[in-house]
Model the fold of this input.
Amino acid sequence: MLSVQIGALDRGPVEVSGIVACDDPLFDGVGFELGESVRVSGRLSGATVGRFYWKGRIATTVRATCRRCLVATALGIDVRVDAMFTDSQDAEDPSEYVVPQGAGLIDLREVIREELILATRQFVLCREDCNGLCQTCGIDLNLHSCDCRPSLDPRWSALETMKTESGEQDYNGSSQEKNL
Ligand SMILES: [Zn+2]
Ligand SMILES: [Zn+2]
Done:
């Protein structure tokens, strides 16, 4: 049950739990694929007048590309959710979900979609210490190494040249001393 009649909340908190299938149209256009159905649980309670909150959990597996090296990877997601709903149609807090006027019920599906997008964006890495791609040649630094070095600021390379020149002078000087 992923939607709750607002009237029911007048009598106290309501436990929610349910499953959303991975091919549910809810996930159209999210930018990742679900590896299994989404398990949802928690509790929906009334807050101040016209406001309600859902404290719960969303768990599933998504298939997406590592945000550093772009390799396809599967990621287990298990996030805690604290979502606030309001029936005020001109609510200004963007973190609150507005209950459509006259709906009479709170539907958790939009929150589920949003939270999954958020979690996927934040966490998709093939592994914690992924080296990513070389910024210069694009090679996968987990599999290969390359000779690219971070490009130097021209001012620094001018400084490098000066250092090298003065170093040579010193060397010449000391060798001359030796010859004497
Ligand atoms: Zn990676
Ligand atoms: Zn490179």
About this structure: The first strand starts at residue 3 and ends at 5. The chain has two domains: 3-123, 150-180. The mean pLDDT is 84.
